[in-house]
Structure formats: C-alpha cells, structure tokens
Amino acid sequence: MTLTTYFDYVILPILTLSVILAFIRLYKGPQIFDRVIALDLIITIGIGIITVYSIRTSQEVFLDIAMILALIAFLGTIAFSFYLEKQRNDD
Amino acid sequence: MTDITLAILSTIGALAILFASIGILRMPDFYLRLSVTVKAATLGVGLLLICAAMTFPDVSVTTKAIAIGFFLILTAPVAAHMIGRAAYIQRVKTWKGTILNDLEKEGQLDCRKEDF
Lengths: 91, 116
Prior knowledge:
Chain A is an all-alpha fold. Chain A has helices spanning 3-28, 32-57, 62-86. Chain A has three helices and no strands.
C-alpha cells in the first residue's frame, strides 16, 4: 500500500466523515452559537482537507488558499461574536 | 522511513479531527462543545501541516506550513474566547451537570444592565 493509496482510502474519508458530522450539528444546532462554532470547525477541517489534497497531488500552491481560509475563518467568528454580544433579547 | 512517519502523523491528525467532530455532535452543552472542538481540531490540522512540510523538500512550503500553523494556534483561542464570552452574556444555558460557575458567584459579567 503506497502513501497515495493510503491518503485516498483512509485519511480523506475520515476527514469527509468529520465534515458530515459537523454539518449535522450546523443543521440541528439549538442556538446560533452552536451553528457558529460548527461553521468554524467545518472551515478548520477544510484547511486540513486542502493540506492533504496538496500532499496527494504534489501541488504546493494549494497551501496559499489554506492560509487565506484560516484568516477568513477567524474574521468570521470574531464578527459573529461581536454582533451576537450586542443583541438584546427583549423577552 | 519518511512514508511511515507521514502515515503515522496523518493518521493521528485525522483521528484528532474526527474526535473533534464526534465531540461537537455528542456533547450536551454549548460550552462543552466549544471546549472539545477548538483544541482537538487545532492539534489535528497542525499534525497534517507537519506532514505537508515533511513531504515537499522546499523551504517555501515549510515556511507556509509554519505560518498557517502559527496563525491557527494564535487565532483559535481568541475566537473561542470571544464566542464563549458572547454566549455567556446572552445567557446560554449550561448543562444540568455543571457544578462550578465562578462568574455566577462573583456577579461579574452581569453587564446587560449597562449599555456597552
């Protein structure tokens, strides 16, 4: 079993299963905070998938996109928490 | 030898990410979900980035992998702290098995009265 086959048949299915499990929480999530952290986890797993795919195809250019995605995930979570902190639930 | 090291590191990384996903699905509480997710996912992605740095014999790839890992380690706790603070201010319920809440005792962070 070569390393390419191992990445294809073991590592990438595990990461895909992780994305599916996090997406179930994104769909179910009782409150919006659960959805925000599920989205953050999905983007973080996406960085991992991009890294594995760049190892698999020997294209090192894909790592640039992973860097940008890390930055956007941080900004998104900060923006969500900034506005969710200020909202008032007038009940 | 390099292939075996790569296989071991990537397996541990992928399993850490899988455990983070199972944790976010199975934990009963928002705060427990947050606590499980951030640490395990950062560990897993960091191990996968070490694999990428070992695969390509190029200095630029190693620099990029270190930059991504440093950025993740720097920003993930800050984002988790911000979203946890927002959730506590918005009175997200804790799990019924939670026995320690220091902020409730001190009366801190009860800042919905002030307009800030």
